[in-house]
Design goal:
Length: 406
């Protein structure tokens, strides 16, 4: 093979440029502290690095969602704690109202205090979060959930519960709506409601009562009082169809338990005091109300005059029912608050998982694309020596000439 002078020069130049290119790439990797800068450096590692980066970004989003969920739940849990305190204060006022020695002015004073608690409760129900949205409005977070009315407050939100995905396959509720918290509260004992008829003239009062077993059915009964032939007070229980339940004309004893067998359970209650002949006490299925209406009814009962024994008996029933209603509302708030506390504990556990995953992804990315400095510096020195050798050989070869020997 014949080698021309031009070929010698070109091949030497090509060799030096190749060595310079390799040296330049090694310098780039050292400067960037990356073994893989472009996919061509290591296609397999580059592909896996993309997958790991995407998983890392998703993990970061879970961490952000967990932080947002934690803030929302912490605010909600704290607000529910304040709501529970207000309900407990209201309960104390209602207990004080059962004191038989209170005057009309005393009861009015308690009514004013209870009104203040009602206003405070509505204010807490309209609490805003850090972004300006309402905590308990459901999805309608820009709409004020509760508007005060003469009967308590009206709900303006919906039944939605805002949620965030905080882990793969795990979506967590970070808010509660006003319906679940304050609406649809069962009256009385939650199964049935007792009351004395407005036309009663005696001073007897009926207790809130309780249900045993799996009570079902219409649960509409009347207890009617009458005098027997000997002048003793008796009672008879009728259902909604005016049918006698049990034996008629049962002897009455103040404070003794009265039970109505429904077939699947029993309704139990007490009537205390001195009923008059013709007095009627009703048992009806428990309805649903919001806590604001329940407190408004208690306020109205405190403001109502008590001119006789029948009015005082009705007031006693109202206070007992209001106490039970407040307890029901407190139990609902406590249940939701407990659920939020459980969610906060779950977030703590999930946050540990997210942090562990973040560390794993960092380590995996380092393994895939980070530079091994010892190997890179060794390669840099080797490439520098190769370039210097190429330059020296180029100088020697290109200096060859016959004229040097003439």
């Amino acid at each position: 093979m014949r080698i021309s002078t031009g070929m010698i020069f070109q091949r030497g130049l090509d060799a030096m440029q190749k060595q310079q290119s390799s040296l330049f790439q090694t310098q780039q990797h050292i400067a960037a502290n990356k073994r893989v800068i472009r996919p061509s450096d290591d296609p397999v590692a580059a592909s896996r690095a993309v997958e790991t980066t995407q998983a890392k970004a998703l993990n970061k989003q879970y961490a952000d969602n967990q932080a947002a969920a934690r803030d929302a739940l912490a605010l909600g849990e704290s607000t529910l704690g304040n709501i529970g305190d207000v309900l407990q204060d209201a309960r104390v006022l209602l207990v004080n109202a059962t004191n038989g020695s209170l005057t009309a002015d005393d009861r009015k004073s308690l009514a004013l205090d209870l009104k203040a608690k009602l206003d405070q409760l509505i204010g807490l129900a309209n609490t805003r979060d850090g972004a300006g949205g309402y905590l308990f409005a459901g999805y309608q977070e820009q709409a004020q959930p509760f508007t005060p009315t003469a009967a308590g407050a009206q709900y303006n939100g919906d039944q939605g519960r805002r949620e965030l995905q905080v882990a793969p396959g795990r979506t967590l509720a970070v808010s509660e709506n006003g319906v679940e918290l304050f609406e649809r509260l069962r009256e009385g004992n939650g199964t049935f409601v007792t009351a004395s008829a407005t036309a009663n003239t005696g001073n007897a009062a009926i207790s809130v009562g309780r249900a045993t077993g799996q009570v079902s059915g219409a649960l509409q009964y009347q207890v009617e009082f009458a005098l027997d032939a000997n002048g003793a007070m008796t009672y008879t229980i009728f259902d909604s169809g005016a049918n006698v339940i049990g034996a008629p004309d049962q002897p009455y004893t103040s404070g003794a338990a009265i039970s109505i067998d429904t077939g699947t359970g029993a309704l139990e209650f007490e009537i205390s005091g001195e009923p008059a002949a013709g007095d009627i006490f009703t048992i009806e299925p428990a309805g649903q109300k919001n806590v604001f209406a329940m407190l408004s009814e208690a306020i109205a009962a405190l403001e109502r005059p008590l001119p006789d024994g029948a009015a005082r008996a009705a007031f006693t029933e109202d206070m007992a029912r209001s106490l039970q209603n407040v307890d029901n509302a407190f139990d609902r708030v406590l249940s939701v608050r407990t659920a939020m506390g459980a969610s906060l504990r779950e977030l703590d556990a999930l946050n540990n998982v997210v942090q562990d995953n973040a560390l794993h992804y960092e380590e995996r990315l380092s393994e895939l694309i980070d530079l091994d400095y010892a190997a890179a510096l060794t390669q840099l020195v080797r490439e520098q020596m190769a370039l210097e050798a190429a330059q020296l050989s180029y100088q020697r070869v290109t200096s060859l000439s016959l004229f040097n020997y003439l």
